[in-house]
Amino acid sequence: MLDGVIPPAEDGGPVRLLGSRCGCCGEVFFPARAICTNCSAQRGEPWEFGPEGVLYTYTVVREPPGLPPRAFGQVDFEGKVRVQGRILGDFASIRIGTRMKLVLRSNADGLPAGFAFRPSENEGASGVG
Ligand SMILES: [Zn+2]
User: Fold this and answer.
1) Residue 89 DSSP class
2) What is the CATH number of domain 51-119?
3) 33 C-alpha to center of ligand 1: Å?
4) CA-CA 20 to 30 A from 125: which of 22, 24, 73, 93?
5) Per residue of the chain (129 residues), what is the pLDDT tens digit?
6) Taking the model in full, what pTM does it have?
7) In angstroms, what is the span from residue 45 Cα to ligand 1's centroid?
8) Rounded to the nearest whole angstrom, what is the distance from the C-alpha of residue 54 to the centroid of ligand 1?
9) Where do the DSSP E strands lie in 1-98?
């Protein structure tokens, strides 16, 4: 079980994340919080979000020499929460505002290691939002 990750029910199904929503003021958090940092209430409820968000910013790491470049980004979901993670797939054409979707990430042994982002397949058809 991966902390905060809701794996797809079937192959190719959507990956979602599990945060929390304050039952008092409605503020949302990822990772989930027991105590709201906005109003101090202890009324956190499970809050699922994803699978699609909008790329807020990103960087490409080209060090050390010999390793392929890797991209990392921050993605906004529902305009409420910003999540940081690895960007997989072809990131040469991504831009701030690109629609991204959550995917599962494996470690070097092929075991589930968490979530990552990948540009949405329909990106480019309708521009950015
Ligand atoms: Zn609150």
Assistant:
1) S
2) 2.40.50
3) 10
4) 73
5) 578 899 888 877 899 999 999 999 999 999 999 999 999 999 999 999 999 999 999 999 999 999 999 999 999 999 999 999 999 998 888 999 999 999 999 888 988 889 999 999 765 444 433
6) 0.86
7) 11
8) 25
9) 5-6, 16-22, 28-29, 44-49, 52-61, 70-77, 81-87
